[in-house]
């Protein structure tokens, strides 16, 4: 029992569900160009964002919905949008998963249009 308690205290506690946190993504995406691991960090950033966006779009497609991101948006646009969002939301970034932060950034930049409301038939009064 005490061994289990000791093991639990060694595990990192996170407030979000996911393998990668918003702070970690921001750190990768804002790596110093002069750092020796810049290219690895930069690829990690872009790869993560691309994977997250692909997963969101796949989920939408599986539910019969189209992507809300315009077709002319580039991977660099997605990266810039995500980094900007992460920079402006440090509290959310620290408390949430990276994928939820990518999703929030993308939804803010390119919100899905609301589905047209179905016309309600007016109830006719019988005389």
Describe the structure.
Residues 22-112 form the Rap1a immunity protein domain. The protein has helices spanning 2-10, 22-29, 38-62, 75-88, 90-95, 98-109. The protein is mostly helical and 127 residues long. It has one domain (16-109): 10k-s Protein, Hypothetical Protein A, Chain A (Orthogonal Bundle), CATH 1.10.890. α2 crosses α3. It is globular, with a radius of gyration of 21 Å. The N and C termini lie far apart (77 Å). Mean pLDDT is 83; it is low at 1-14.
Order of helices and strands: HHHHHH
Helix content: 55-70%
Which overall shape is indicated by the principal axes computed on the Cα atoms? globular
CATH fold node name: 10k-s Protein, Hypothetical Protein A, Chain A
The fraction of residues in strands falls at under 5%
Which CATH class is shown? Mainly Alpha
Distance between the termini: 77 Å
The count of strands amounts to: 0
> At CATH's second level, what is the architecture?
Orthogonal Bundle
Structural class: mainly alpha
Total tally of structural domains: 1
Q: List low-pLDDT spans.
A: 1-14
Average pLDDT figure: 83
How is the main sheet built? none
The radius of gyration over CA amounts to 21 Å
Number of helices: 6
